[in-house]
Design a protein that fits this description.
Blueprint lengths: L1 E9 L17 H13 L5 E3 L8 E11 L5 H11 L4 E9 L9 E11 L13 E2 L6 H9 L3 E4 L14 E12 L2 E8 L6 H13 L7 H8 L14 E8 L1
Parallel strand pairs: 3-10, 5-6
Antiparallel strand pairs: 1-3, 1-4, 2-3, 5-9, 5-10, 7-8, 8-9
Helix pairs in contact: 3-4
Length: about 250
């Protein structure tokens, strides 16, 4: 049994996220498993580094599946890109170690969130960025971001229901840059909770608009109360850029 590792890109606009669902099958996982099952001539289950939400994009999603197929990695790459829809692409195919698991072996991830910070719409970024016409104080947002770095309990920054699973995560970097009419936020850490980045973004935007202070972020962390954090921003501005492995 071979273990095949894929690196994928997808535009998440018209999909209900990565994870296969029972009611409908308009998901990235569903599309991939249907294709790979036909290609390999056997039932295929594919795992990914994480379950991106509906509307979230990916430049560097990593996934893996097991197969008895003798197809070369070059043949798998060519077949996938010939038959996948135009908004999903396989960028790289390789043989992985038998015990490699794209989610369990991941040591970190990098995401980017884009804001169009202008009163004039940008038609070319409309699927990949959220619009915010109000002026933003980048220095205040950077001060708030500094308080989020390191290892914390991010319970206040997730939409996940009550669970026995730990909500402690480590953020190594939050970079905030202005590029022409956009403000881009880069988050790097050892893992992120459900909706965590989108809630962090909502909180940082409230700081940037003067609704809350940079110092308030520390109080939100300590509270563990989702109601005290900012709004959940739209999914379309978020992209998974890279998954890290040792």
């Amino acid at each position: 049994m071979r273990n095949i590792r894929l690196r994928l890109q997808y535009e998440g606009t018209r999909y209900q996220g990565w994870q296969k669902q029972t009611s409908t099958d308009n998901t990235i996982q569903g599309k991939m498993e249907t294709l790979l099952t036909k290609m390999c001539g056997e039932p295929i289950e594919i795992s990914a580094s994480g379950r991106t939400d509906a509307g979230v994009h990916a430049l560097g999603q990593v996934a893996n599946f097991h197969t008895e197929s003798a197809m070369s990695v070059e043949e798998i790459l060519e077949y996938c890109n010939r038959y996948l829809p135009e908004d999903i692409a396989v960028v790289e195919v390789s043989e992985a170690a038998p015990r490699f698991h794209s989610r369990l072996n991941a040591t970190g991830k990098r995401y980017r969130y884009r804001i169009i910070n202008s009163q004039i719409p940008d038609v070319f970024w409309r699927r990949y960025a959220t619009e915010e016409p109000e002026a933003l104080d980048l220095d205040a947002m950077r001060k708030a971001a500094e308080r989020l770095l390191g290892e914390h309990d991010f319970k206040a920054f997730t939409s996940a229901k009550k669970s026995k699973k730990s909500t402690v995560r480590r953020i190594d970097e939050i970079r905030i840059e202005r590029i022409e009419n956009r403000v881009e936020f880069v988050f790097t850490g050892n893992g992120f909770l459900h909706h965590m980045i989108r809630i962090l973004m909502g909180t940082l935007l409230e700081v940037g608009k003067g609704i809350r202070t940079p110092e308030s972020v520390t109080d939100i962390l300590k509270s563990g109360d989702r109601a005290k954090a900012g709004a959940l921003v739209p999914a379309k501005g978020l992209v998974l850029e890279e998954v890290f492995y040792t």
